[in-house]
Amino acid sequence: MIFFWAFVVGGLICVIGQLLMDGLKLTPAHTLATLVVSGAILDGLGIYERLIDFAGAGATVPITSFGNQLVHGAMTEADNSGLIGVLTGIFQVTSGGISAAIIFSFIAALIFKPKG
Does the structure show a pLDDT above 80 at 17? Predict the structure, then answer.
């Protein structure tokens, strides 16, 4: 059943993004920023962690999870290290994903030729 809920929740997040672009005529950049900020706000309110517990990858794969991770890391480290933890927590939680994106993008740039 977890696969079903992951599909439904992940699909709903994608539908919301598509509706933002189609209905409100937002650019992809504005839609991306809106979804990241939405994930951050939901985590700040304590809602996004419950969504992750319920839907698993359906809530952790979409871009809203990036905002969730930023706030979650900052709040966790703020509890442990005080105000400086707000800054360091953001980097600790997101550094793996960002590093992987940079490394894989670099490898793709070496392997493939751009069109143009």
Answer: yes
